[in-house]
Write a structure and sequence with these properties.
The chain is mainly α. Helices cover 76% and strands 0% of the residues.
Length: 150
């Protein structure tokens, strides 16, 4: 139970809900990590079957040579998503995914000139991954099970 949960229990409109919130704290965080990682892996699965398929796209963003960056993008999304979902090397995988997403923010906001509305989804995903860069995998992760985290 975190200090935030303890402190907020007295200010709840329905104080008995504090126990429920406390009991769901880790489960909610684990669910968010599993869903975010799973969705990232699903998104990357389209790229992992053809790792060189995004060569022209990444070169169009200014990342040369595309034959290096395209497979790296595919691996970051697919394998990074799996790592985040299971909570293994959570911070490192989330950081790599965060870099990819910040590039998509730049692409939509600046390069495509779409502003906030074009970058909104990437910003939301960036915030989720930044959360896991900071927090790590929590006690329901492979990192916690092996007793090692970066």
């Amino acid at each position: 139970m975190s200090a935030t949960t303890d402190a907020s229990r007295g200010t709840l409109i329905v104080p008995p809900l504090g126990r429920l919130y406390s009991s769901l704290h880790d489960a909610g965080e684990t669910l968010l990590r599993a869903v975010a990682g799973g969705f990232l892996a699903i998104h990357g699965s389209q790229k992992i079957v053809n790792p060189f398929g995004a060569t022209e796209m990444v070169e169009g963003l200014g990342f040369y040579p595309g034959v290096f960056w395209s497979p790296l993008l595919a691996c970051t999304e697919f394998f990074g998503g799996i790592l985040i979902a299971i909570g293994l090397l959570t911070r490192q995988a989330a950081f790599a995914g965060l870099i990819v997403l910040l590039v998509t923010v730049w692409f939509h906001w600046v390069t495509m000139g779409q502003g906030f509305s074009g970058a909104e989804k990437s910003l939301l995903w960036s915030a989720i991954l930044a959360f896991f860069v900071i927090r790590g995998g929590n006690r329901h992760s492979v990192d916690a099970r092996i007793g090692k985290a970066f």
